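Subject: Heavy metal translocating P-type ATPase structure
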Amino acid sequence: MEQKNELIKKPTTFYGINLSFLKRHGELIAALISGILILIGYVINHMSTQTPWYIFLFAYLIGGFAKAKEGIEETLKEKTLNVELLMIFAALGAAFIHHWFEGAMLIFIFALSGALETYSTEKSSKALSSLMKLQPETATRLDHGLVSTVPVNELNLGDLIQIKPSERVPADGVIVKGETTIDASSMTGESIPIFKKVNDEVMAGTVNLEGHLIVKVTKRSQDSMFSRILHLVQSAQNEKVPAQAFIEKFENLYVSFVLLFVALMLILPPFLFGWTWSHTIYRSMVLLVVASPCALVASTTPAILSAIANGARNGILIKGGIHLQQLASIQAIAFDKTGTLTTGLPKVTQFVNVSPITNDDLLGHVAAIESHTTHPLGLAIVDYAKEHIKTIPNPDQVKIVPGYGVYGQIDQCDYKIGKANPEFIDEVSLHLFLKEVHIKENQSLVFIERNGEVIGYIGLNDEVRETSKEAITSLRQYGIKSVMLTGDNEKVAKTIMEETGVDSMIADCLPDQKATAIKQIKKEYGSVAMIGDGINDTPALATADLGIGMGAGTDAALETADIILMKNDLMKIIDTVKLSKKMNRIIKQNIAFALMVILVLVVSNFIEVLNLPLGVVGHEGSTILVILNGLRLLKNS
Protein backbone atom coordinates (compact mmCIF):
# COMPACT_ATOMS: atom_id res chain seq x y z
CA MET A 1 0.00 0.00 0.00
CA GLU A 2 2.86 2.35 0.88
CA GLN A 3 4.51 1.66 -2.47
CA LYS A 4 1.27 2.46 -4.26
CA ASN A 5 0.96 5.77 -2.44
CA GLU A 6 4.53 6.62 -3.38
CA LEU A 7 3.75 5.91 -7.03
CA ILE A 8 0.77 8.27 -7.20
CA LYS A 9 2.57 11.20 -5.59
CA LYS A 10 3.07 14.20 -7.81
CA PRO A 11 6.57 14.23 -9.32
CA THR A 12 9.00 16.75 -7.88
CA THR A 13 11.43 16.61 -10.80
CA PHE A 14 11.11 16.48 -14.57
CA TYR A 15 14.20 15.39 -16.51
CA GLY A 16 16.36 16.52 -13.60
CA ILE A 17 14.57 19.87 -13.20
CA ASN A 18 13.23 20.71 -9.73
CA LEU A 19 9.54 21.47 -10.35
CA SER A 20 8.94 23.01 -6.93
CA PHE A 21 11.85 25.41 -7.55
CA LEU A 22 10.35 26.39 -10.90
CA LYS A 23 6.96 26.94 -9.29
CA ARG A 24 8.43 29.27 -6.64
CA HIS A 25 10.77 31.21 -8.91
CA GLY A 26 9.27 30.69 -12.39
CA GLU A 27 8.19 34.31 -12.83
CA LEU A 28 11.65 35.64 -11.96
CA ILE A 29 13.37 33.05 -14.18
CA ALA A 30 11.11 34.01 -17.10
CA ALA A 31 11.95 37.71 -16.63
CA LEU A 32 15.69 36.98 -16.59
CA ILE A 33 15.48 34.76 -19.69
CA SER A 34 13.59 37.58 -21.40
CA GLY A 35 16.40 39.98 -20.48
CA ILE A 36 19.04 37.61 -21.89
CA LEU A 37 17.09 37.29 -25.16
CA ILE A 38 16.83 41.08 -25.40
CA LEU A 39 20.61 41.39 -24.95
CA ILE A 40 21.22 38.76 -27.65
CA GLY A 41 18.79 40.50 -29.99
CA TYR A 42 20.43 43.88 -29.32
CA VAL A 43 23.91 42.51 -30.19
CA ILE A 44 22.67 40.80 -33.37
CA ASN A 45 20.80 43.96 -34.40
CA HIS A 46 24.03 45.99 -34.21
CA MET A 47 26.03 43.35 -36.07
CA SER A 48 23.66 43.05 -39.04
CA THR A 49 21.29 45.20 -41.04
CA GLN A 50 18.20 43.16 -40.18
CA THR A 51 16.26 43.33 -36.94
CA PRO A 52 16.04 39.88 -35.27
CA TRP A 53 12.35 40.40 -34.54
CA TYR A 54 11.85 36.68 -33.81
CA ILE A 55 14.25 36.86 -30.83
CA PHE A 56 12.42 39.89 -29.43
CA LEU A 57 9.13 38.06 -30.02
CA PHE A 58 10.33 35.22 -27.80
CA ALA A 59 11.34 37.83 -25.19
CA TYR A 60 7.80 39.22 -25.43
CA LEU A 61 6.19 35.82 -24.91
CA ILE A 62 8.49 34.54 -22.16
CA GLY A 63 8.80 37.75 -20.15
CA GLY A 64 5.31 39.09 -20.66
CA PHE A 65 3.20 35.96 -20.25
CA ALA A 66 2.81 36.12 -16.44
CA LYS A 67 2.00 39.85 -16.29
CA ALA A 68 -0.27 39.66 -19.34
CA LYS A 69 -2.18 36.74 -17.79
CA GLU A 70 -2.41 38.60 -14.48
CA GLY A 71 -3.61 41.80 -16.16
CA ILE A 72 -6.27 40.08 -18.26
CA GLU A 73 -7.57 37.96 -15.36
CA GLU A 74 -7.73 40.99 -13.05
CA THR A 75 -9.56 43.02 -15.69
CA LEU A 76 -12.14 40.27 -16.19
CA LYS A 77 -12.56 39.71 -12.45
CA GLU A 78 -12.52 43.31 -11.15
CA LYS A 79 -13.97 44.94 -14.27
CA THR A 80 -11.24 47.60 -14.05
CA LEU A 81 -8.23 48.52 -16.15
CA ASN A 82 -4.67 48.16 -14.89
CA VAL A 83 -1.08 49.04 -15.72
CA GLU A 84 -0.43 45.48 -16.92
CA LEU A 85 -2.83 46.03 -19.82
CA LEU A 86 -1.23 49.36 -20.69
CA MET A 87 2.18 47.73 -20.80
CA ILE A 88 0.85 45.04 -23.13
CA PHE A 89 -0.68 47.64 -25.46
CA ALA A 90 2.48 49.78 -25.37
CA ALA A 91 4.73 46.80 -26.20
CA LEU A 92 2.42 45.68 -29.01
CA GLY A 93 2.31 49.23 -30.31
CA ALA A 94 6.10 49.38 -30.39
CA ALA A 95 6.19 46.09 -32.28
CA PHE A 96 3.51 47.33 -34.68
CA ILE A 97 5.76 50.17 -35.81
CA HIS A 98 8.79 47.82 -35.89
CA HIS A 99 10.50 48.95 -32.68
CA TRP A 100 10.82 45.50 -31.18
CA PHE A 101 13.73 46.29 -28.86
CA GLU A 102 11.91 49.14 -27.11
CA GLY A 103 8.79 47.05 -26.61
CA ALA A 104 10.78 44.11 -25.27
CA MET A 105 12.57 46.38 -22.77
CA LEU A 106 9.19 47.58 -21.48
CA ILE A 107 8.12 43.98 -20.97
CA PHE A 108 11.39 43.00 -19.26
CA ILE A 109 11.44 45.83 -16.68
CA PHE A 110 7.78 45.37 -15.79
CA ALA A 111 8.10 41.56 -15.57
CA LEU A 112 11.16 41.82 -13.32
CA SER A 113 9.45 44.17 -10.86
CA GLY A 114 6.37 41.92 -10.81
CA ALA A 115 8.46 38.82 -10.06
CA LEU A 116 10.18 40.52 -7.14
CA GLU A 117 6.84 41.70 -5.78
CA THR A 118 5.44 38.15 -5.97
CA TYR A 119 8.48 36.75 -4.15
CA SER A 120 8.12 39.28 -1.32
CA THR A 121 4.42 38.49 -0.90
CA GLU A 122 5.03 34.72 -0.70
CA LYS A 123 7.68 35.20 2.00
CA SER A 124 5.30 37.10 4.28
CA SER A 125 2.61 34.42 3.99
CA LYS A 126 4.68 31.96 6.07
CA ALA A 127 3.86 33.70 9.37
CA LEU A 128 0.86 31.55 10.25
CA SER A 129 2.65 28.28 9.52
CA SER A 130 5.46 29.33 11.88
CA LEU A 131 2.94 30.08 14.61
CA MET A 132 1.24 26.72 14.18
CA LYS A 133 4.52 24.89 14.89
CA LEU A 134 4.38 26.14 18.48
CA GLN A 135 0.97 24.61 19.18
CA PRO A 136 0.96 20.91 20.19
CA GLU A 137 -1.10 18.78 17.83
CA THR A 138 -2.00 16.19 20.47
CA ALA A 139 -2.68 15.98 24.19
CA THR A 140 -2.56 13.14 26.75
CA ARG A 141 -6.14 12.80 28.06
CA LEU A 142 -7.11 10.96 31.26
CA ASP A 143 -10.56 9.36 31.21
CA HIS A 144 -11.53 7.27 34.28
CA GLY A 145 -8.03 5.90 34.66
CA LEU A 146 -7.51 5.35 30.94
CA VAL A 147 -4.73 7.29 29.20
CA SER A 148 -5.09 8.18 25.54
CA THR A 149 -3.48 10.52 23.04
CA VAL A 150 -6.03 12.72 21.24
CA PRO A 151 -5.88 15.67 18.83
CA VAL A 152 -5.97 19.00 20.67
CA ASN A 153 -9.09 20.11 18.77
CA GLU A 154 -11.00 17.11 20.22
CA LEU A 155 -10.51 18.23 23.84
CA ASN A 156 -13.71 19.27 25.61
CA LEU A 157 -14.35 21.53 28.59
CA GLY A 158 -13.65 19.64 31.82
CA ASP A 159 -11.32 17.05 30.24
CA LEU A 160 -8.30 16.10 32.33
CA ILE A 161 -4.95 16.16 30.53
CA GLN A 162 -1.50 15.08 31.68
CA ILE A 163 1.52 17.32 31.00
CA LYS A 164 5.04 15.99 31.58
CA PRO A 165 8.20 18.05 32.23
CA SER A 166 9.56 19.89 29.16
CA GLU A 167 6.23 19.49 27.33
CA ARG A 168 4.33 22.44 25.90
CA VAL A 169 0.87 23.01 27.41
CA PRO A 170 -1.68 21.91 24.76
CA ALA A 171 -4.76 23.78 26.04
CA ASP A 172 -5.82 26.54 28.42
CA GLY A 173 -6.75 25.07 31.79
CA VAL A 174 -6.37 24.98 35.58
CA ILE A 175 -4.01 22.73 37.55
CA VAL A 176 -5.84 20.09 39.63
CA LYS A 177 -2.75 18.12 40.67
CA GLY A 178 0.95 18.87 40.84
CA GLU A 179 3.11 21.96 40.86
CA THR A 180 5.83 23.22 38.55
CA THR A 181 7.60 26.19 37.05
CA ILE A 182 6.11 27.45 33.78
CA ASP A 183 8.07 29.25 31.08
CA ALA A 184 5.44 31.72 29.81
CA SER A 185 7.87 34.00 27.95
CA SER A 186 6.50 32.95 24.55
CA MET A 187 3.00 34.05 25.55
CA THR A 188 3.29 36.86 28.09
CA GLY A 189 6.86 38.09 27.64
CA GLU A 190 7.54 37.42 31.33
CA SER A 191 11.32 36.94 31.43
CA ILE A 192 11.36 34.89 34.68
CA PRO A 193 9.65 31.45 34.80
CA ILE A 194 6.51 31.42 36.99
CA PHE A 195 5.70 28.93 39.75
CA LYS A 196 2.30 27.27 39.33
CA LYS A 197 0.42 25.13 41.81
CA VAL A 198 -3.07 23.62 42.24
CA ASN A 199 -5.89 25.98 41.11
CA ASP A 200 -3.48 28.15 39.10
CA GLU A 201 -4.22 28.71 35.39
CA VAL A 202 -1.93 27.65 32.56
CA MET A 203 -2.06 28.77 28.94
CA ALA A 204 -1.65 26.80 25.75
CA GLY A 205 1.75 27.39 24.18
CA THR A 206 3.63 27.80 27.47
CA VAL A 207 6.24 25.23 28.58
CA ASN A 208 6.11 23.02 31.69
CA LEU A 209 9.71 23.07 32.93
CA GLU A 210 9.79 20.69 35.91
CA GLY A 211 6.81 18.92 37.46
CA HIS A 212 4.16 16.42 36.38
CA LEU A 213 0.78 18.13 36.03
CA ILE A 214 -2.85 17.13 35.76
CA VAL A 215 -4.80 20.01 34.19
CA LYS A 216 -8.54 20.49 33.69
CA VAL A 217 -9.34 22.04 30.29
CA THR A 218 -11.21 25.35 30.66
CA LYS A 219 -11.25 26.51 27.04
CA ARG A 220 -11.70 24.70 23.75
CA SER A 221 -8.80 24.78 21.30
CA GLN A 222 -10.41 27.45 19.13
CA ASP A 223 -11.02 29.70 22.16
CA SER A 224 -7.53 29.51 23.68
CA MET A 225 -5.14 32.45 23.90
CA PHE A 226 -2.95 30.75 21.29
CA SER A 227 -5.83 30.53 18.81
CA ARG A 228 -6.68 34.16 19.48
CA ILE A 229 -3.10 35.06 18.58
CA LEU A 230 -3.41 33.18 15.28
CA HIS A 231 -6.69 34.95 14.51
CA LEU A 232 -5.25 38.37 15.32
CA VAL A 233 -2.23 37.83 13.06
CA GLN A 234 -4.38 36.54 10.21
CA SER A 235 -6.88 39.40 10.45
CA ALA A 236 -4.20 42.08 10.59
CA GLN A 237 -2.31 40.62 7.61
CA ASN A 238 -5.44 40.63 5.47
CA GLU A 239 -6.09 44.33 6.06
CA LYS A 240 -4.96 46.67 3.29
CA VAL A 241 -2.97 49.74 4.18
CA PRO A 242 -4.32 53.04 2.77
CA ALA A 243 -1.36 53.34 0.40
CA GLN A 244 -2.40 50.13 -1.39
CA ALA A 245 -5.90 51.42 -2.08
CA PHE A 246 -4.48 54.70 -3.40
CA ILE A 247 -2.08 52.90 -5.76
CA GLU A 248 -4.88 50.72 -7.14
CA LYS A 249 -7.08 53.76 -7.72
CA PHE A 250 -4.25 55.69 -9.39
CA GLU A 251 -3.42 52.70 -11.60
CA ASN A 252 -6.96 52.45 -12.96
CA LEU A 253 -7.21 56.21 -13.61
CA TYR A 254 -3.80 56.36 -15.30
CA VAL A 255 -4.50 53.46 -17.67
CA SER A 256 -7.98 54.74 -18.50
CA PHE A 257 -6.62 58.21 -19.26
CA VAL A 258 -3.82 56.94 -21.52
CA LEU A 259 -6.07 54.55 -23.47
CA LEU A 260 -8.70 57.26 -23.89
CA PHE A 261 -6.01 59.68 -25.08
CA VAL A 262 -4.67 57.13 -27.61
CA ALA A 263 -8.21 56.39 -28.85
CA LEU A 264 -8.80 60.10 -29.44
CA MET A 265 -5.42 60.35 -31.22
CA LEU A 266 -6.48 57.55 -33.57
CA ILE A 267 -9.71 59.30 -34.56
CA LEU A 268 -9.64 63.09 -34.20
CA PRO A 269 -6.39 64.40 -35.84
CA PRO A 270 -7.45 63.68 -39.47
CA PHE A 271 -10.58 65.77 -38.93
CA LEU A 272 -9.09 68.50 -36.72
CA PHE A 273 -5.59 68.92 -38.18
CA GLY A 274 -5.83 67.29 -41.58
CA TRP A 275 -3.36 64.53 -40.76
CA THR A 276 -3.25 61.50 -42.97
CA TRP A 277 -4.40 58.21 -41.48
CA SER A 278 -0.90 56.71 -41.71
CA HIS A 279 0.55 59.75 -39.94
CA THR A 280 -2.20 59.52 -37.30
CA ILE A 281 -1.45 55.85 -36.62
CA TYR A 282 2.27 56.66 -36.39
CA ARG A 283 1.64 59.45 -33.86
CA SER A 284 -0.69 57.21 -31.86
CA MET A 285 1.92 54.47 -31.65
CA VAL A 286 4.54 57.01 -30.55
CA LEU A 287 2.09 58.13 -27.88
CA LEU A 288 1.67 54.57 -26.64
CA VAL A 289 5.45 54.21 -26.35
CA VAL A 290 6.22 57.53 -24.67
CA ALA A 291 3.19 57.37 -22.34
CA SER A 292 3.97 53.86 -21.15
CA PRO A 293 4.86 53.86 -17.43
CA CYS A 294 8.29 52.29 -17.90
CA ALA A 295 10.08 55.20 -16.21
CA LEU A 296 7.42 55.28 -13.50
CA VAL A 297 8.01 51.61 -12.75
CA ALA A 298 11.75 52.18 -12.74
CA SER A 299 11.24 55.12 -10.40
CA THR A 300 10.56 52.76 -7.52
CA THR A 301 11.93 49.28 -8.24
CA PRO A 302 15.70 50.02 -8.53
CA ALA A 303 15.52 52.40 -5.57
CA ILE A 304 13.71 49.82 -3.44
CA LEU A 305 16.05 46.98 -4.43
CA SER A 306 19.10 49.15 -3.76
CA ALA A 307 17.75 50.14 -0.35
CA ILE A 308 16.95 46.51 0.51
CA ALA A 309 20.45 45.43 -0.59
CA ASN A 310 21.97 48.24 1.48
CA GLY A 311 19.98 47.14 4.51
CA ALA A 312 20.93 43.47 4.09
CA ARG A 313 24.60 44.40 3.86
CA ASN A 314 24.23 46.21 7.19
CA GLY A 315 22.27 43.53 9.06
CA ILE A 316 18.76 44.82 8.28
CA LEU A 317 16.41 42.40 6.51
CA ILE A 318 13.60 44.28 4.72
CA LYS A 319 10.82 42.10 3.32
CA GLY A 320 9.42 44.64 0.87
CA GLY A 321 9.81 48.20 -0.31
CA ILE A 322 6.40 49.25 0.97
CA HIS A 323 7.52 48.45 4.53
CA LEU A 324 10.64 50.58 4.24
CA GLN A 325 8.57 53.34 2.67
CA GLN A 326 6.12 53.26 5.58
CA LEU A 327 8.89 53.67 8.15
CA ALA A 328 9.53 57.24 7.05
CA SER A 329 6.03 58.26 8.17
CA ILE A 330 6.04 56.42 11.52
CA GLN A 331 5.11 58.71 14.43
CA ALA A 332 5.64 56.27 17.31
CA ILE A 333 7.37 52.94 17.94
CA ALA A 334 6.11 50.43 20.50
CA PHE A 335 8.88 48.31 22.04
CA ASP A 336 8.50 44.90 23.61
CA LYS A 337 10.62 44.77 26.78
CA THR A 338 11.95 41.24 27.15
CA GLY A 339 14.42 40.37 24.40
CA THR A 340 14.06 43.76 22.72
CA LEU A 341 14.90 46.59 25.10
CA THR A 342 16.50 43.97 27.33
CA THR A 343 18.58 40.90 26.55
CA GLY A 344 15.84 38.57 27.81
CA LEU A 345 18.28 36.75 30.09
CA PRO A 346 18.44 37.18 33.91
CA LYS A 347 21.73 38.50 35.24
CA VAL A 348 23.01 38.81 38.79
CA THR A 349 22.92 42.45 39.86
CA GLN A 350 23.56 42.07 43.60
CA PHE A 351 25.18 39.54 45.95
CA VAL A 352 24.80 40.10 49.71
CA ASN A 353 26.53 37.96 52.37
CA VAL A 354 26.13 38.65 56.14
CA SER A 355 27.69 35.37 57.32
CA PRO A 356 31.18 34.89 58.77
CA ILE A 357 32.34 32.86 55.74
CA THR A 358 33.95 34.70 52.85
CA ASN A 359 32.04 35.87 49.79
CA ASP A 360 34.04 33.56 47.53
CA ASP A 361 33.32 30.51 49.69
CA LEU A 362 29.60 31.26 49.95
CA LEU A 363 29.29 32.02 46.26
CA GLY A 364 31.13 28.79 45.49
CA HIS A 365 28.74 26.76 47.67
CA VAL A 366 25.66 28.38 46.12
CA ALA A 367 26.96 27.88 42.57
CA ALA A 368 27.87 24.26 43.32
CA ILE A 369 24.27 23.52 44.27
CA GLU A 370 22.68 25.64 41.51
CA SER A 371 24.86 23.96 38.88
CA HIS A 372 22.62 20.91 39.19
CA THR A 373 19.47 22.82 38.14
CA THR A 374 18.22 23.97 34.74
CA HIS A 375 16.29 26.96 36.06
CA PRO A 376 17.27 30.25 34.27
CA LEU A 377 17.97 31.97 37.61
CA GLY A 378 20.23 29.12 38.72
CA LEU A 379 22.13 29.20 35.43
CA ALA A 380 22.61 32.97 35.79
CA ILE A 381 24.01 32.49 39.31
CA VAL A 382 26.46 29.85 38.08
CA ASP A 383 27.62 32.17 35.26
CA TYR A 384 28.13 34.96 37.80
CA ALA A 385 30.16 32.66 40.05
CA LYS A 386 32.40 31.59 37.18
CA GLU A 387 33.27 35.24 36.56
CA HIS A 388 34.23 35.90 40.21
CA ILE A 389 35.78 32.70 41.61
CA LYS A 390 38.30 30.25 40.22
CA THR A 391 36.72 26.89 41.11
CA ILE A 392 33.27 25.60 42.02
CA PRO A 393 33.26 22.64 44.47
CA ASN A 394 31.10 19.52 44.20
CA PRO A 395 28.06 19.32 46.54
CA ASP A 396 27.40 16.26 48.68
CA GLN A 397 23.67 16.25 47.99
CA VAL A 398 21.21 18.23 45.81
CA LYS A 399 17.41 18.12 45.69
CA ILE A 400 15.27 20.38 43.49
CA VAL A 401 12.02 21.63 45.03
CA PRO A 402 9.87 22.78 42.06
CA GLY A 403 8.50 26.29 42.44
CA TYR A 404 10.53 27.05 45.56
CA GLY A 405 14.21 26.49 44.91
CA VAL A 406 16.88 23.92 45.58
CA TYR A 407 18.18 22.13 48.67
CA GLY A 408 21.82 21.10 48.93
CA GLN A 409 24.45 19.82 51.30
CA ILE A 410 28.11 20.80 51.13
CA ASP A 411 30.93 20.74 53.69
CA GLN A 412 28.46 19.22 56.19
CA CYS A 413 26.23 22.30 55.94
CA ASP A 414 22.59 22.31 54.80
CA TYR A 415 21.67 24.98 52.26
CA LYS A 416 18.32 26.15 50.93
CA ILE A 417 18.47 28.52 47.95
CA GLY A 418 15.23 29.93 46.61
CA LYS A 419 12.23 32.23 47.00
CA ALA A 420 11.10 33.88 50.24
CA ASN A 421 8.37 31.31 50.80
CA PRO A 422 7.64 30.29 54.43
CA GLU A 423 7.11 26.72 53.24
CA PHE A 424 10.74 26.66 52.08
CA ILE A 425 12.82 29.41 53.75
CA ASP A 426 12.62 29.72 57.58
CA GLU A 427 10.13 32.54 58.21
CA VAL A 428 11.58 33.76 61.55
CA SER A 429 15.15 33.84 60.25
CA LEU A 430 14.03 35.61 57.07
CA HIS A 431 12.20 38.26 59.12
CA LEU A 432 15.32 38.98 61.21
CA PHE A 433 17.44 39.13 58.08
CA LEU A 434 15.13 41.61 56.36
CA LYS A 435 15.25 43.91 59.41
CA GLU A 436 19.05 44.12 59.19
CA VAL A 437 19.52 44.32 55.40
CA HIS A 438 18.22 46.93 52.97
CA ILE A 439 17.06 45.19 49.79
CA LYS A 440 16.87 46.94 46.44
CA GLU A 441 13.43 46.70 44.86
CA ASN A 442 12.49 45.81 41.30
CA GLN A 443 14.61 42.67 41.04
CA SER A 444 14.11 38.94 41.43
CA LEU A 445 15.47 37.74 44.80
CA VAL A 446 17.02 34.37 45.61
CA PHE A 447 17.62 33.91 49.37
CA ILE A 448 20.37 31.78 50.87
CA GLU A 449 19.64 29.79 54.04
CA ARG A 450 22.50 27.94 55.77
CA ASN A 451 21.77 25.51 58.63
CA GLY A 452 18.38 27.13 59.23
CA GLU A 453 19.66 30.73 59.17
CA VAL A 454 19.19 33.21 56.27
CA ILE A 455 22.67 34.57 55.59
CA GLY A 456 22.33 36.38 52.27
CA TYR A 457 20.58 36.84 48.98
CA ILE A 458 21.25 37.23 45.28
CA GLY A 459 19.39 39.85 43.21
CA LEU A 460 18.80 39.24 39.51
CA ASN A 461 17.30 41.32 36.76
CA ASP A 462 16.76 41.27 33.05
CA GLU A 463 19.69 43.26 31.62
CA VAL A 464 18.96 46.30 29.45
CA ARG A 465 20.69 46.22 26.07
CA GLU A 466 23.62 48.62 25.75
CA THR A 467 22.09 50.27 22.67
CA SER A 468 18.54 50.71 24.02
CA LYS A 469 18.96 54.16 25.59
CA GLU A 470 20.95 55.53 22.64
CA ALA A 471 18.36 54.23 20.18
CA ILE A 472 15.46 55.80 22.12
CA THR A 473 17.32 59.15 22.29
CA SER A 474 18.07 59.06 18.55
CA LEU A 475 14.45 58.27 17.69
CA ARG A 476 13.34 61.26 19.75
CA GLN A 477 15.57 63.48 17.56
CA TYR A 478 13.57 62.27 14.56
CA GLY A 479 10.34 63.19 16.33
CA ILE A 480 9.41 59.54 16.92
CA LYS A 481 7.82 58.72 20.29
CA SER A 482 8.63 55.46 22.13
CA VAL A 483 6.22 53.27 24.10
CA MET A 484 7.18 50.11 26.02
CA LEU A 485 4.73 47.18 26.08
CA THR A 486 5.52 44.36 28.50
CA GLY A 487 3.97 41.42 30.29
CA ASP A 488 6.07 42.23 33.36
CA ASN A 489 4.63 44.00 36.40
CA GLU A 490 4.57 47.78 36.76
CA LYS A 491 7.54 48.04 39.16
CA VAL A 492 9.87 46.17 36.82
CA ALA A 493 8.50 48.11 33.84
CA LYS A 494 9.16 51.47 35.55
CA THR A 495 12.75 50.48 36.27
CA ILE A 496 13.36 49.60 32.62
CA MET A 497 11.58 52.79 31.54
CA GLU A 498 13.95 54.89 33.64
CA GLU A 499 17.02 53.06 32.35
CA THR A 500 16.09 53.28 28.67
CA GLY A 501 14.33 56.67 28.60
CA VAL A 502 11.20 55.50 26.76
CA ASP A 503 8.44 58.14 26.70
CA SER A 504 5.70 55.93 28.15
CA MET A 505 4.89 52.34 29.06
CA ILE A 506 2.06 49.83 29.40
CA ALA A 507 2.71 46.94 31.82
CA ASP A 508 0.94 43.58 32.45
CA CYS A 509 0.12 43.17 28.75
CA LEU A 510 -1.12 39.80 27.51
CA PRO A 511 -0.74 39.17 23.75
CA ASP A 512 -4.27 40.30 22.82
CA GLN A 513 -3.89 43.32 25.09
CA LYS A 514 -0.71 44.31 23.26
CA ALA A 515 -2.64 44.33 19.99
CA THR A 516 -5.35 46.48 21.61
CA ALA A 517 -2.65 48.80 22.99
CA ILE A 518 -1.25 49.22 19.47
CA LYS A 519 -4.67 50.35 18.26
CA GLN A 520 -4.85 52.91 21.08
CA ILE A 521 -1.37 54.18 20.27
CA LYS A 522 -2.46 54.54 16.64
CA LYS A 523 -5.33 56.79 17.73
CA GLU A 524 -2.96 58.92 19.80
CA TYR A 525 0.01 59.22 17.45
CA GLY A 526 -1.10 58.07 14.00
CA SER A 527 1.24 55.69 12.20
CA VAL A 528 2.81 53.17 14.61
CA ALA A 529 5.58 50.55 14.38
CA MET A 530 6.10 47.64 16.78
CA ILE A 531 9.43 45.99 17.68
CA GLY A 532 9.33 42.53 19.29
CA ASP A 533 10.90 39.10 19.34
CA GLY A 534 8.45 36.51 20.72
CA ILE A 535 5.23 34.75 19.79
CA ASN A 536 3.50 36.97 22.34
CA ASP A 537 4.45 39.95 20.16
CA THR A 538 3.05 38.58 16.89
CA PRO A 539 -0.48 40.07 17.25
CA ALA A 540 1.01 43.49 17.97
CA LEU A 541 3.54 43.12 15.13
CA ALA A 542 0.73 42.27 12.73
CA THR A 543 -1.66 44.97 14.03
CA ALA A 544 0.92 47.78 13.82
CA ASP A 545 1.40 49.67 10.58
CA LEU A 546 4.90 48.24 10.54
CA GLY A 547 6.29 45.17 12.35
CA ILE A 548 9.99 45.04 13.25
CA GLY A 549 11.52 41.82 14.61
CA MET A 550 14.74 41.15 16.52
CA GLY A 551 17.02 38.66 14.75
CA ALA A 552 17.29 36.31 17.74
CA GLY A 553 13.50 36.15 18.13
CA THR A 554 11.12 33.26 17.49
CA ASP A 555 10.37 32.08 13.94
CA ALA A 556 6.79 33.30 14.32
CA ALA A 557 7.88 36.85 15.19
CA LEU A 558 10.46 36.91 12.40
CA GLU A 559 7.94 35.72 9.81
CA THR A 560 5.29 38.20 10.97
CA ALA A 561 7.69 41.16 11.05
CA ASP A 562 8.14 43.35 7.97
CA ILE A 563 11.68 44.38 8.90
CA ILE A 564 14.19 42.30 10.91
CA LEU A 565 17.21 43.64 12.82
CA MET A 566 19.46 40.62 12.29
CA LYS A 567 22.17 41.59 14.78
CA ASN A 568 19.80 42.46 17.67
CA ASP A 569 21.25 45.97 17.63
CA LEU A 570 18.53 48.57 18.28
CA MET A 571 20.72 51.28 16.75
CA LYS A 572 20.04 49.56 13.44
CA ILE A 573 16.51 50.96 13.62
CA ILE A 574 18.07 54.44 13.35
CA ASP A 575 19.99 53.36 10.25
CA THR A 576 16.74 51.97 8.84
CA VAL A 577 14.88 55.25 9.47
CA LYS A 578 17.63 57.16 7.65
CA LEU A 579 17.53 54.69 4.76
CA SER A 580 13.74 54.93 4.59
CA LYS A 581 13.72 58.72 4.44
CA LYS A 582 16.43 58.75 1.76
CA MET A 583 14.59 56.13 -0.30
CA ASN A 584 11.33 58.05 -0.11
CA ARG A 585 13.10 61.24 -1.17
CA ILE A 586 14.69 59.53 -4.19
CA ILE A 587 11.44 57.84 -5.21
CA LYS A 588 9.63 61.19 -5.11
CA GLN A 589 12.37 62.74 -7.24
CA ASN A 590 12.13 59.88 -9.73
CA ILE A 591 8.35 59.97 -9.98
CA ALA A 592 8.31 63.74 -10.47
CA PHE A 593 11.02 63.50 -13.13
CA ALA A 594 9.34 60.56 -14.92
CA LEU A 595 5.97 62.31 -15.03
CA MET A 596 7.60 65.51 -16.28
CA VAL A 597 9.41 63.65 -19.09
CA ILE A 598 6.21 61.80 -20.08
CA LEU A 599 4.33 65.10 -20.16
CA VAL A 600 7.01 66.78 -22.29
CA LEU A 601 7.18 63.83 -24.71
CA VAL A 602 3.40 63.59 -25.04
CA VAL A 603 3.05 67.32 -25.74
CA SER A 604 6.00 67.21 -28.17
CA ASN A 605 4.39 64.33 -30.02
CA PHE A 606 1.08 66.14 -30.20
CA ILE A 607 2.64 69.30 -31.71
CA GLU A 608 4.66 67.13 -34.16
CA VAL A 609 8.15 68.11 -33.04
CA LEU A 610 8.93 64.58 -31.80
CA ASN A 611 9.66 61.60 -34.00
CA LEU A 612 9.77 58.01 -32.85
CA PRO A 613 13.57 57.72 -32.44
CA LEU A 614 13.65 60.86 -30.27
CA GLY A 615 10.64 59.60 -28.36
CA VAL A 616 12.43 56.33 -27.68
CA VAL A 617 15.60 58.18 -26.61
CA GLY A 618 13.62 60.43 -24.29
CA HIS A 619 11.59 57.57 -22.87
CA GLU A 620 14.49 55.13 -22.41
CA GLY A 621 16.84 57.92 -21.33
CA SER A 622 14.48 58.98 -18.54
CA THR A 623 14.26 55.35 -17.47
CA ILE A 624 18.04 55.02 -17.28
CA LEU A 625 18.35 58.25 -15.29
CA VAL A 626 15.80 57.25 -12.66
CA ILE A 627 17.46 53.83 -12.36
CA LEU A 628 20.87 55.44 -11.79
CA ASN A 629 19.34 57.79 -9.24
CA GLY A 630 17.83 54.81 -7.43
CA LEU A 631 21.15 52.97 -7.41
CA ARG A 632 22.59 55.74 -5.22
CA LEU A 633 20.91 53.96 -2.32
CA LEU A 634 23.49 51.18 -2.58
CA LYS A 635 25.97 53.52 -0.93
CA ASN A 636 25.93 54.03 2.83
CA SER A 637 25.04 57.61 3.70
